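Priority: medium. Attachment 1 of 2:
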């Protein structure tokens, strides 16, 4: 029973520990995923903030162009200083504008007139275009020019001053589109004429007409020129982003207008390797369409951004949960083992106690000197057998034995010799009885009893005992009967009835033993009814009886 219980409790503890570990890991994973979800939401919000800042920045720059356009709309002829004053005031506030420019529409026949007018202030002024090797050269002959006539700030934009925007096919087509539809348009990324380093820039152009022409022809006819904003992508980007809060976000600005997407600017180095977690957070946010261009912000968090927002909580939940489960499981396991041990010890103790009790019981029923049953044992067995015989209607016989002249034996051979004699006699009496149900017990000092349940010939057995003791040849010089130790016996046998008592039964056998003593010892005292019942053996008893008379 115990091993089954132990195996069950061990299996239960192991399963509980495994379940606890699983729950700890699960708890950690759930918290980890929740944290990632929060980071994802925060990240998208931060990117949206930056995209909106970029939109605001572009719209603010458009407003500047509208203000300059208004200047040209409201004046017959805008002078260089008027343009300079207005543009400077905007440039002072908008540091991300590379230049604000005015490019009038100049027909081929008026080119000289325009060049001369500007040479009053800038003697080297002429209409220019970009030569094939990238350097600036005098503009070729064409019907219409759009030369950069005013440019603020002048310093740093000298290369653009006089540059004919119509010198480039694709730019001219965009200008014409803007003019025909009265559209504010932004170019795709270009390398600015004033650019020294390899940075991407773009232009926003805004046509200025006389009045408000509503058809294509009238627009072409009434066109005065073009207001231009010149920008470096990086400047616009950094200026917009620098006031937004979150740091550690890798941003890539792409121009997705048309079929070919183009990368405009990235605020990180492209050879930086990305982790899978970073890639998982990647987020694209399209900006409002401005100047006909569709810009998109592609964002990925840096490792620092993620690390800053991750806590140790999921790990701690997992680690401490596991430790708690393991320690708890270990404690319960040890406690169970201990209690099992205690129970096992208790069972062992109880078994030992039972054994001790049995041994004590055995001792209490054993005569200390001879090792056969004692008086107490006899009394209990006698009671039991009496009741059994009474119930079953069977016979019960009792032989009482007394050593002859034992006092004299003691006097002659001493108590130690007497003790040995008692042991020898007891041993021989026990050997003489055959049945397991027979009981030989020491009754008193030198007296023994033999209880014989359901025995037909108790007298024969009694005489056999007498003969066997005499045959032991235990010397007894002082005996009045023989040279050896002899015994006298009384025998009673009856089928008990409820009118008879155990005491009478004992009394009778004592009487018969006394008679045997009185008749001369070394003989069996038999009741008359037994003599009658055992007629066939009468001679033997006569022999026994006759011994005493010799
Ligand atoms: N050695 C020894 N002697 C004992 C023990 N118990 C009793 N005796 C002695 O046994 C003797 C019993 O003597 P009795 O039965 O009275 O008389 P007896 O000498 O046997 O005489 P009869 O019975 O008439 O033959 C006494 O001397 C007791 O002291 C014992 O355990 N050991």
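Attachment 2 of 2:
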């Amino acid at each position: 029973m115990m091993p089954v219980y132990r195996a069950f409790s061990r299996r239960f503890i192991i399963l509980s520990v495994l379940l606890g570990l699983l729950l700890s890991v699960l708890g950690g994973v759930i918290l980890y995923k929740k944290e990632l979800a929060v980071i994802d939401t925060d990240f998208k919000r931060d990117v949206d903030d930056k995209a909106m800042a970029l939109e605001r920045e572009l719209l603010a720059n458009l407003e500047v162009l509208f203000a300059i356009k208004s200047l040209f709309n409201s004046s017959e002829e805008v002078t260089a200083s008027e343009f300079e004053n207005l543009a400077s005031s905007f440039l002072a506030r908008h540091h991300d504008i590379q230049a604000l420019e005015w490019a009038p529409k100049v027909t081929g026949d008026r080119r000289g007139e325009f060049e001369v007018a500007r040479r009053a202030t800038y003697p080297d002024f002429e209409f220019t275009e970009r030569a094939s090797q990238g350097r600036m050269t005098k503009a070729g002959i064409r019907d219409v020019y759009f030369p950069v006539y005013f440019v603020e700030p002048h310093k740093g934009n000298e290369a653009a001053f006089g540059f004919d925007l119509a010198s480039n096919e694709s730019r001219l087509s965009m200008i014409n589109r803007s003019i025909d539809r009265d559209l504010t348009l932004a170019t795709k990324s270009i390398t600015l004429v004033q650019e020294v380093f390899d940075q991407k820039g773009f232009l926003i152009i805004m046509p200025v007409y006389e009045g408000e022409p509503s058809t294509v022809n009238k627009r072409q006819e009434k066109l005065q020129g073009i207001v231009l904003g010149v920008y470096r992508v990086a400047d616009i980007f950094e200026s917009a982003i620098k006031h937004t809060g979150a740091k550690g976000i890798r941003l890539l600005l792409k121009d997705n207008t048309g079929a070919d997407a183009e990368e405009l600017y990235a605020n990180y180095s492209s050879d930086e390797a990305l982790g899978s977690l970073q890639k998982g957070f990647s987020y694209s946010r399209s900006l409002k369409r401005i100047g006909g261009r569709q810009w998109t912000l592609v964002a990925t968090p840096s490792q620092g951004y993620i690390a800053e927002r991750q806590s140790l909580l999921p790990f701690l939940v997992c680690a401490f949960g596991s430790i708690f489960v393991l320690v708890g499981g270990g404690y319960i396991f040890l406690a169970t083992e201990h209690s099992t041990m205690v129970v096992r010890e208790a069972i062992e103790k109880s078994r030992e106690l039972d054994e001790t009790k049995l041994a004590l019981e055995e001792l209490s029923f054993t005569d200390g000197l001879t090792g056969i049953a004692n008086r107490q044992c006899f009394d209990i067995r006698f009671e039991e057998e009496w009741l059994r015989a009474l119930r079953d209607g069977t016979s019960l016989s009792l032989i009482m034995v007394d050593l002859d002249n034992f006092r004299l034996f003691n006097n002659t051979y001493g108590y130690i010799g007497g003790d040995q004699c008692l042991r020898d006699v007891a041993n021989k009496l026990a050997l003489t009885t055959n049945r397991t149900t027979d009981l030989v017990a020491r009754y008193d000092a030198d007296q023994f009893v033999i209880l014989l349940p359901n025995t037909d010939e108790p007298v024969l057995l009694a005489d056999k005992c007498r003969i066997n003791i005499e045959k032991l040849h235990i010397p007894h010089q002082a005996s009045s009967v023989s040279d050896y130790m002899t015994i006298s016996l009384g025998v009673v046998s009856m089928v008990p009835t409820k009118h008879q008592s155990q005491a009478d039964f004992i009394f009778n056998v004592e009487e018969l033993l006394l008679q045997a003593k009185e008749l001369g010892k070394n003989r069996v005292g038999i009741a008359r009814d037994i003599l009658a019942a055992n007629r066939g053996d009468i001679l033997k008893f006569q022999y026994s009886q006759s011994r005493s008379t010799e």
